[in-house]
Amino acid sequence: MPLAMNIPNINTHLQATAGAAGIFNGLRERIVNGDYSFNERLPSERDLATRFAVARGTVRAALEQLEQAGLVLRKFGSGTFVSYNTNPKQEDIAEETSPLELIETRLAIEPHIVRLVVSNANNREIRKLTEALEKVMDSRHNPNEFSSADELFHLTLAHCSQNPLLIWIYQRINDIRSHTQWSHRKNNILTSKKISLYNTQHEALLEAIKRRDAESASNIMTAHLTQAKKDLLGPS
Questions:
Q1: Widest CA span of the chain, in angstroms?
Q2: CATH fold of 3-82, please?
Q3: Among 8-22, 94-108, 137-151, whose mean pLDDT is lowest?
Q4: Residue range 88-233 in CATH 3.90.230.10
Q5: N or C, which terminus of the chain has less Cβ within 10 Å?
Q6: pLDDT grade for 89, boundaries at 50, 70 and 90
Q7: CA dist 78 to 42, 50, 155, Å?
């Protein structure tokens, strides 16, 4: 299919949320759903900027987020290509995994990830974490933007572990986090009060990492995900 034919098919609701977060969410959905196939070149920054009536810098920020999420590869002089390979088995596991099972998996993995971050992250990676957290804080008034920024913050933590297998595993976790089952629940969970609490925990986590305090960082992550699990289950 000619590339130009892909552009008009972008969901019209994205135009209303065009901003880096809106463009990121829309393109991610299309990539994960297979509308853009593995190794396919995305529309150019110029074409996307025209479609969404935004500055090219806004489009560039969204593409950078997609690259950080492991969904695209940006090749200088050639364009942006889909690096996400849709796998039917992956779709099956996304359908079969409940939000509770997802949280339990994160509890098993992320406390150790932050221990590795404390041990392995260099100053440049700590700055990336700080920037990722700033995006989370800036999105605190919009649950959808907060959710996207939160996913990127946790994925950045995985990247800072410098463990390629854990990074790959966490990319799959993030894929499932964007699945419909979670999307339907997050709007009920992500109240202003809950977002404020989560951000307090995020800030404490980053401070523990900066202090190189692996024990505290691991405990904070455990408490953070335990709180998310409690919120997911609702009143007992």
A1: 56
A2: Arc Repressor Mutant, subunit A (1.10.10)
A3: 8-22
A4: no
A5: C
A6: low
A7: 11, 19, 26
